[in-house]
Amino acid sequence: VVDLGMPTRTVLTTCAYCGVGCSFKAELRGDELVRMVPYKDGGANEGHSCVKGRFAFGYATHPDRVLNPMIRESIQDQWREVDWGTAISYVAEKMREIQARYGAGAIGGITSSRCTDEEVYVVQKMVRAAFGNNNVDTCARVCHSPTGYGLKQTFGTSAGTQDFKSVAKADVIVVIGANPTDAHPVFASRMKRRLREGAKLIVIDPRRIDLVRSPHVEAQHHLKLAPGTNVAVVNAFAHVVVTENLTDQSFVDERCEEFDEWAEFIARPENSPEATEEITGVPAADLRAAARLYATGGNAAIYYGLGVTEHSQGSTMVMGMANLAMATGNIGRDGVGINPLRGQNNVQGSCDMGSFPHELPGYRHISDDTVRTTFEDLWERHLLAEPGLRIPNMFDAALDGTFRGLFVQGEDIAQSDPNTQHVTAALAAMDLVVVQDLFLNETAKFAHVFLPGTSFLEKDGTFINAERRINRVRPVMPPKSGKHEWEIVCEIAQAMGYPMSYTHPREIMAEIAALTPTFAGVSFEKLDKLGSVQWPCNDKAPEGTPIMHVDGFVRGKGRFVPTPFVPTRERSTRKYPLILTTGRILSQYNVGAQTRRTENVAWHPEDILEIHPHDADVRGIRNGDEVTLTSRVGHTTLHAHISDRMPIGVVYTTFHHPVTGANVVTTENSDWATNCPEYKVTAVQVGLTTPT
Ligand code: SF4
């Protein structure tokens, strides 16, 4: 008998890796997942996929999965398996004890951008209604929180403006601080298709990413700016637009406000390309030419990534890009806009679901009495009007002894957050750390309770991708641990005295829709019927909104905000003469907890340090040598890869492996508005680990 391997059933679901949100048919033979087939009618991917979504699903059934809840009194003790009832009672009791001793605000929770909207929503509800405070934050704190802040200030809502399809109408594509080929491969293919058709490309990045020169694609401009100087570059673009009369004045007059004050600021000599050359190292003539191309080349669209947000001026840069788009009228139609390329599958959703200490679902401030009352009425709980602690504030408070209990949903903060030593010291200082995850990750080394999570193959709910598209995630198999993550959270809340229960995630989405105007028209039934919808989805837009700000901005008028360039505190010195910046590669995903447990790891078994031939030569470093990377906060060792992709004076690495732990060297510097860490600028020294 020949086993042809034909599937016996298929389930339509969504990739759990990047923010493109590709749809897949999971094909099963019996209970075994045999392959993932990209879905041709998927709104985000139209039948395409990358090597992660298509092949790297083996982690979901990896033997490292922990399937039973575990408890230990101290982090020096061995774990002991317990039943669910014991684990949930233990968490509730310990959280209550901490509150009784140290106050209601001594505990909090962190939500995960890898979990579903419904799972995230119940965590923030548990914190607000059962814990009785607003100490809830999301891992988006360390990636796209400046996007949320910057776009809200200027446009009125914290989300990208376009759908992915829109790129097909762009005449000029600007890629800033993003590497779509590696980090968002399926969208990168769409972008390249448009570039091959003749659209012009401007890349703003210290590193020569693949897009700069790849088959049939060549950037018209690659502005190799010094790390940390994005704002100076975007201001120089705007300076050219204003001083050379390239503004779309009718758009500005009809649609925007506070233009004159901004124009006066941006026209100042310190924002000229000549002054900017001094700061950024980018020749003034290149800045002028690129700015003119953006302003006059037809539809111009900006796509950006963490190279924009993970800076001390991340929020300023987001507002700077929004200013530029408004000044040139590049908002509100196909082919234009400001488009954050979200890293994780559900960054957009975790932010939309109110996992910020100052915002309820739908980005409404907790201090807004009317909004808060709506939630209080439905949740039947008094809510505090004061914002709670952000993640870095939780760590600081833990070291002060005022924050003692943390629930961490699917996020490895001990590996992903900056200045690892500070994070682990804070975790070690807490009385109770609860980790809900698939694997015993780095954070679990500091945990007292481990609650097994579910992989995307077991989840039932929704993810929201970078274009605000709400996709269904359908279960391929039942939860291996016997419980859904949303059930666990509800049971903890109940054990703490707050009644919270649902029979199915569709009921959670119904509650989200009832409380959140931008989701008012969303339901599982609609998603099953239409495939997906892009929010806002409500009476005004019952089938969703592919492009935002078409007839007016969400805040009414688009607002220009002056964006002065302020240099980062992180400078190269005699002791630390190089600047380290970080990024991703195609085969791996974030801290690697998933992809390292798949065959993808063979393509990238370790993080390596890219270093320019000149910088390597003066240090006697040869290709493959083991080098020590040292900053003022820590050091790690990696193997060197000599490459002229980086300019002289800048080194680069990825952060997929805990052994090398790039975040051991990143610092406490962060965005002034949101505390998003400044991962992209760290002064370092590099030397041979064993000098010859
Ligand atoms: Fe998954 Fe992103 Fe790859 Fe699509 S592009 S298959 S969403 S990792």
UniProtKB/TrEMBL annotation:
One Gene Ontology cellular component: membrane
Entry GO MF terms: 2 iron, 2 sulfur cluster binding; 4 iron, 4 sulfur cluster binding; formate dehydrogenase (NAD+) activity; metal ion binding; molybdopterin cofactor binding; NADH dehydrogenase activity
Keywords: 2Fe-2S, 4Fe-4S, Iron, Iron-sulfur, Metal-binding, Oxidoreductase, Repeat
Span of domain 4Fe-4S Mo/W bis-MGD-type: 8-64
GO biological process, one term: respiratory electron transport chain
Family: In the C-terminal section; belongs to the prokaryotic molybdopterin-containing oxidoreductase family.
Designated name of the protein: Formate dehydrogenase subunit alpha
Organism (species): Amycolatopsis alkalitolerans
Complete-protein stretch covered: 230 to 921 of 936
